[in-house]
């Protein structure tokens, strides 16, 4: 408590100073009470509890998602995946090779070449037949 020893106004000034101290203490007490009340309110407020619960659930979901994505496939799964990739690759190569050979077989160049070989073979056959018939 602050006390003034000045006698200006006599005891009135002393009472005034005591009153100011009293008011200041009351204000400090009121501030402390509001702080305590706010802390208690935060702990017991259903809205805050729901918010804390929703935040906890969101963090849990994120942790589960991160954990599930972090799992690496087993060695068996890796071999099965590699086997499927090789099978798909081989099937794709077979289809492309067959289509390319069909295109070559049906091309004009291939037809002319076959005809030329057939004609040459027939000519050789005739010459051989003529050579053996003369004797």
TrEMBL record:
Entry keyword annotation includes Signal: yes
Localization terms from the record: Secreted
Family the UniProt entry places it in: Belongs to the apolipoprotein C1 family.
Protein name per the record: Apolipoprotein C1
Record PANTHER family: APOLIPOPROTEIN C-I
Signal peptide positions (record): none
Protein species of origin: Paramormyrops kingsleyae
Keywords for the protein's UniProt record, in alphabetical order: Lipid transport, Secreted, Signal, Transport
GO molecular function: fatty acid binding; phospholipase inhibitor activity
GO biological process: lipid transport; lipoprotein metabolic process; negative regulation of cholesterol transport; negative regulation of lipid catabolic process; negative regulation of very-low-density lipoprotein particle clearance; triglyceride metabolic process; very-low-density lipoprotein particle clearance
GO-annotated cellular components: high-density lipoprotein particle; very-low-density lipoprotein particle
């Amino acid at each position: 408590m602050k006390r003034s020893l000045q006698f200006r106004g006599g005891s009135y000034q002393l009472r005034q100073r005591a009153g100011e101290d009293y008011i200041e203490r009351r204000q400090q007490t009121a501030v402390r009470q509001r702080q305590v009340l706010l802390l208690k309110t935060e702990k017991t407020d259903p809205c805050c509890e729901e918010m804390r619960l929703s935040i906890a659930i969101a963090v849990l979901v994120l942790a589960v998602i991160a954990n599930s994505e972090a799992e690496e496939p087993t060695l068996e799964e890796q071999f099965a995946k590699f086997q499927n990739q090789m099978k798909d690759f081989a099937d794709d190569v077979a289809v492309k090779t067959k289509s390319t050979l069909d295109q070559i077989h049906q091309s004009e160049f291939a037809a002319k070449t076959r005809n030329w070989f057939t004609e040459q073979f027939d000519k050789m056959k005739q010459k051989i037949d003529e050579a053996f018939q003369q004797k």
